[in-house]
Amino acid sequence: MPKPNPRHPNFPIPSGPVLRAKGWRQEALLRLLENVLSVGEDPDNLVVYAALGKAARNWVAHRQIVQTLTTMDEDQTLIIQSGKPIGLLQTHVNAPLVIMANCNIVGQWAKAEVFYELQRKGLICWGGLTAGAWQYIGSQGVIQGTYEIFMR
Q: What is the three-class DSSP state of 80?
């Protein structure tokens, strides 16, 4: 049963022993996605922090991610490219459940104007340092980032 979220009432805090997915590994990832939005800067727009760092490309992609996490088996891997699910592969129970690649612009295209053009077209989202990688975000990202900033 989710707990009420006084900061963002539309985004309850996931908790409790009830599974909505087929297993606890999938449920854990679902809760991480929900949690990152429940504490996010602008969850109504999927923004976790820094005005651009998003947990998913758009609400359609978010719903597809949630749907996949709740229905996938432990021997499958969800592939997410820049905030959008692009595949569900048959793998094995020891494989990662989710693999993400966020905002991968390389070489001559690694420019702000290219990113913003792709963003306007709905083809990319900025994952931030850890916002897009919601399965990773937590104290480790915050502590590491804060340490690196203060050590400069």
A: strand
